[in-house]
Design brief:
Strand order of the largest sheet of chain B: 7-6-5-8-9
Structural class of chain B: mainly beta
Helix content of chain A: 25-40%
Largest interface: A-B, 64 and 77 residues
Distance between the termini of chain B: 30 Å
Number of helices of chain B: 2
Radius of gyration of chain A: 19 Å
Strand content of chain A: 15-25%
Shape of chain B: elongated
CATH class of one domain in chain A: Alpha Beta
Order of helices and strands of chain A: EHEHEHEHHHHEEEHEHHEHHHHEE
Number of strands of chain A: 11
CATH superfamily of one domain in chain A: Thiolase/Chalcone synthase
Mean pLDDT of chain A: 96
Number of helices of chain A: 14
Mean pLDDT of chain B: 94
Low-confidence stretches of chain A: none
Shape of chain A: globular
Structural class of chain A: alpha/beta
CATH architecture of one domain in chain A: 3-Layer(aba) Sandwich
Oligomer: heterodimer
Strand content of chain B: 35-45%
Number of domains of chain B: 3
Strand order of the largest sheet of chain A: 3-2-4-7-1-8-11-10-9
Low-confidence stretches of chain B: none
Largest sheet of chain B: 5 strands, antiparallel
Largest sheet of chain A: 9 strands, mixed
Helix content of chain B: under 10%
CATH topology of one domain in chain A: Peroxisomal Thiolase, Chain A, domain 1
Chain lengths: ~375, ~325
């Protein structure tokens, strides 16, 4: 089935912080939306529909926040949809918005995602003592640390790879004015010396807890032709799988591999490492950079860490990964996926400022969520596909 | 085949004191409540919204023109609540009403304290009953009452510092129900037995058994009793303390694959130093005293090393 062309017309994000006590959830979303609409040079009358995403309601304790946010999101009199795919939701939200354009239903759609982690405590919300089970759960870090250990054992990766990623992403984040953590003085030694929170994951190898929002204005071909340097959508893909099943590959999940294969096929990319100029990959714990490089097919299984170790994922490398600083520098959970998608678009639009990858023409935005069970990703390019 | 058992259930209680950053519109509204005043905001079409809308419902632009309205108004519509729930404004039967305050164009939802439903009607005039304590919260209005009720004496309103954040405690009560398959396993645990089930299609042995095999979509059914010994596939050492934690760190949370099972479950490893726990380590269950047993995996207090040689990597690699 053929799709109509779609493109990113503009992006916006908040200054991500540990606590944005100065704004309500509505105000936080609007900060990102107003910037995205200014970037896209559109007004409310130009927006046909609004798609909103955020992580589980328990994180802020507001059931269906989209109801009370309808005014703030400019959704009065328009379709308003909520997307819900845990940590990948920001990416899934952008893809749902894109599908409303690709299907020919709407001309311009606003996608927005946010989290106000300071209103609650995600560690608590992710460690609910479910009756009859052992209460050993310890948040997202406690969930993913055993699988990181499995990756290290399986790939034979040297123990220091996780710290290399952390230093690289935080130094990148220092160049991003919107990043929550800006640590220009971080060193490999300081990361290694930081506390071991969920062995084998250290404090400095862990994402922060952030308040923040991201918004993207998407448009159809006619709308895109009217703006300067849109980011054209070359491919989108989403896949899911159960959290647990016998024989599940929790290090290199099938759903992620399937999504990536479909994505590259749709984009006409046969050698991702050679053909993609920059990637924004959802890396909340530093070891996930090599894990997802493999899952996405940038390297054969077991070789992802070699790209990282060789410096290929640093700025100036063969495949810069997370020039924005990534999730390791800013983690407003619901928005984190959309930030990856928006940053990918910013790169091919030439609007990434001090963390711009020179000459970026093809970029990947990636998100995952739940127990590595929801995957969403897109390829955007400076050229009309 | 196993006989069908009644599903077990148990309460799941969750409580959290959420904070609410109020922003530039609800902040002044809450601050005014602490001063026993009610603020609305004027929209682009001239309507006065109470409670104030941060963004205009017509233009979506931020609204900034505050308008003070009366603490008295008219009931536009209502319903009766014979059995109030925990946390609601009044703990005896009351009416929920949409109240249009004098000077406002939109309705505020609040409780009206009257004895019986016939005392409440559309069009009746009601007035705010202010709380003795002023906190800068919607709870500063206890409820509304008929406007001809004599005003209770309250201390004069005084200015307060701006209210920027309110705290809202949420208490959630769930009844968590296990599947029939999981329930047979839980009843087995009550007797110190580990009762897994095999999927009739893929033959994988699940502990706990599943109401639907995640791969095949059919319930597991053939019962398989497993030993209380197995292998650590992978693990992490939890060093971090957090709100609501049930086990004091540091502790080892490990995936334990029982002999004969096709899926590992999370449990606690003790009986050796945390840094001695290894992938492939052979472990056995340490049960709590029988008198403490219930239908729960906590009957096993923890797993401890058996001292046997580690399992070869290939024997558990497919479970990572």
């Amino acid at each position: 089935m053929s799709k109509n062309r779609a493109a990113v017309l503009g992006t916006g994000q908040t200054h991500h912080r540990a606590k944005r006590g100065d704004v309500s959830m509505a105000g936080l979303c609007r900060e990102a939306i107003d910037r995205a609409m200014a970037d896209a040079k559109v007004d409310w009358a130009d927006i046909d529909a609004v798609v909103v995403g955020k992580a589980p309601d328990l994180f802020e304790g507001v059931m269906m926040p989209e109801l009370y946010l309808a005014d703030a999101l400019g959704a009065v009199g328009k379709p308003l949809l909520r997307v819900h795919t845990a940590g990948s939701v920001g990416g899934a939200t952008a893809i749902v918005a894109a599908s409303l354009i690709q299907s020919g239903v709407h001309q311009r759609v606003l996608a927005v995602a946010w989290e106000k982690q300071s209103e609650s405590n995600a560690m608590w919300a992710l460690s609910i003592p479910v009756p009859f089970s052992m209460p050993v759960h310890a948040g997202a870090g406690g969930y993913f640390a055993p699988h990181v250990r499995s990756y290290i054992r399986r790939s034979g990766a040297p123990a220091h790879i996780g710290s290399l990623v952390a230093v690289k992403d935080r130094l990148n984040g220092a160049k991003n004015p919107y990043a929550h953590l800006r640590q220009p003085d971080i060193t490999f030694e300081s990361v290694q010396a930081s506390a071991m929170l969920w062995d084998p994951i250290r404090y400095d190898e862990t994402c922060p807890s952030s308040d923040g929002a991201c918004a993207i204005v998407l448009g159809d071909e006619r709308a895109a032709t009217a703006v300067d340097r849109p980011a054209w959508l070359h491919a989108t893909a989403m896949r899911s799988e159960p959290t647990t099943f016998a024989g599940r590959d929790q290090v290199n999940p099938q759903a992620g591999r399937d999504a990536a294969a479909a994505l590259w096929r749709q984009a006409g990319i046969t050698d991702p490492l050679a053909e993609v100029d920059v990637a924004e990959i959802y890396v909340p714990f530093s070891w996930f950079e090599p894990m997802w490089l493999e899952n996405l097919g940038f390297t054969p299984e077991g070789d992802g860490w070699k790209l990282t170790e060789a410096g290929a994922t640093a700025m100036g490398g063969a495949l810069p990964v997370n020039p924005s600083g990534g999730v390791l520098s800013s983690n407003p959970i619901g928005a984190s996926g959309m930030l990856r998608f928006a940053e990918a678009a910013m790169q091919v639009m030439g609007r990434a400022g001090d963390h711009q990858v020179d000459g970026a023409r093809t970029a990947l935005g990636h998100a995952y969520g739940g127990g590595s069970q929801f995957f969403s990703m897109w390829v955007v390019g400076s050229e009309r596909p | 085949m196993v006989s069908v058992v009644e599903p077990l259930s148990a309460p799941l209680e969750l409580s959290f004191a959420y904070t609410r950053s109020l922003g530039p519109t609800l902040g002044p509204f809450m601050t005014a409540l602490a001063e026993r005043r009610i603020l609305g905001v004027r929209g682009s079409d001239g309507r006065v919204h109470v409670p104030p809308a941060e963004y205009d419902p017509v233009t979506a632009e931020p609204l900034t023109e505050f308008v003070e309205v009366a603490d008295e108004g008219v009931v536009v519509s209502w319903t009766w609540l014979p059995a109030p729930l925990e946390g609601q404004p009044l703990q005896h039967p009351f009416g929920w009403a949409l109240i249009r305050l004098d000077g406002a164009d939109t309705c505020l939802l609040h409780a009206v304290d009257v004895a019986v439903p016939v005392d409440l009607c559309t069009g009746m005039r009601v007035r705010a009953r202010w709380a003795p304590e002023r906190t800068g919260h919607i709870r500063d209005i206890v409820c509304f009452e008929p406007a001809d009720t004599p005003r209770a004496p309250v201390e004069p309103a005084a200015a307060v510092p701006p209210v920027a954040i309110v705290t809202t405690r949420v208490d959630l009560h769930f009844e968590h129900t296990a599947s029939a398959q999981e329930s047979s396993y839980l009843l087995g645990l009550q007797d110190g037995r580990l009762l897994a089930q095999r999927c009739p299609q893929c033959s994988k042995v699940y502990l706990p058994p599943r109401g639907a095999c995640p791969s095949c979509g059919v319930p597991t059914e053939e019962q398989v009793e497993l030993p209380d010994r197995g292998t650590v596939t992978t693990f992490c050492i939890v060093n971090v303390a957090f709100l609501g934690q049930h086990i004091t760190p540091p502790y080892v949370g490990a995936y334990v694959l029982l002999h004969g099972a096709d899926i590992a479950f999370l449990h606690l490893i003790l009986g050796c130093a945390a840094d001695e726990v290894r992938m492939g380590m052979r472990v056995e269950a340490v049960w709590r005293p029988r008198a403490e047993w219930g239908p729960a995996l906590q009957n096993i207090d923890h797993f401890r090393p058996t001292g046997e040689p580690d399992a070869p990597y290939d024997t558990y690699a497919e479970h990572l």
